[in-house]
Amino acid sequence: MSRNARQTQILGIIAQKDIETQEELVAELKLLGFAVTQATISRDIKELNLVKAPTADDKYRYVTRSAVDCSISSRGINLLRDTIASIVTANNLIVVKTIHSSATAVSAILEQMSLEGVLGVVGSGDSLLIVTNDTKTAQCVENKLKKLVF
Fold first, then answer.
1. Rounded to an integer, what distance in angstroms lies between the CA atom of residue 50 and that of residue 85?
2. Domain annotation for the chain: domains and CATH numbers
3. What is the C-alpha R_g of the chain?
């Protein structure tokens, strides 16, 4: 069967089931008649731009990158609300202060959100830095975060 057919099935599978590993995806595709290897699935995951997002039961599942912003778990949002103390923008940089030793966790959640215009997020200890394309994007990201958190 064709690559397009296989990738269409992958998108259908991850939309219906929580698939945590490539092996699980291989097994699901085999049930549908696709003879695939883990290496093929790995390439498909890259081509489809799939990422892992947290689930409510402390596991991860494959989702499309565009779906991540909408699918950040309520637990992730609560973590942001409980740990972020302040958000300040300076030009194209956003400095986020968190409670003690929470910056790494907050940084991971912000990365999963795939905020448009964010070039990177670096966090350590109680501070993290978000680098954006430009000042306007930084303001938009700051406003979105403040609306989500405060």
1. 31
2. 3-71 (1.10.10.10), 74-149 (3.30.1360.40)
3. 18
pTM of this structure: 0.55
Give the Å distances, CA to CA, from 133 to 15, 84, 119, 147.
Answer: 31, 23, 7, 21
Percentage helix, strand, coil for the chain under 3-state DSSP, each rounded to 5:
50, 25, 25
The C-alpha angle with vertex 13 and arms to 64 and 65, in degrees rounded to 5, equals: 5
Establish how many alpha carbons lie within 13 A of residue 2's alpha carbon, considering only the half-sphere containing its beta carbon: 3
pLDDT tens for the chain, 150 residues: list them: 688 989 999 999 998 899 999 999 999 999 999 999 999 999 999 999 888 877 767 678 898 876 655 556 677 888 899 999 999 999 999 999 999 888 988 998 888 787 889 999 999 889 999 999 999 999 999 998 998 888
The three-state DSSP-derived secondary structure of 36-102 is CCHHHHHHHHHHCCEEEEECCCCCEEEEEHHHHHHHCCHHHHHHHHHHEEEEEEECCEEEEEECCCC
Which tokens go with 140? 């938009």
Q: Are 103 and 109 in contact (CB under 8 A)?
A: no
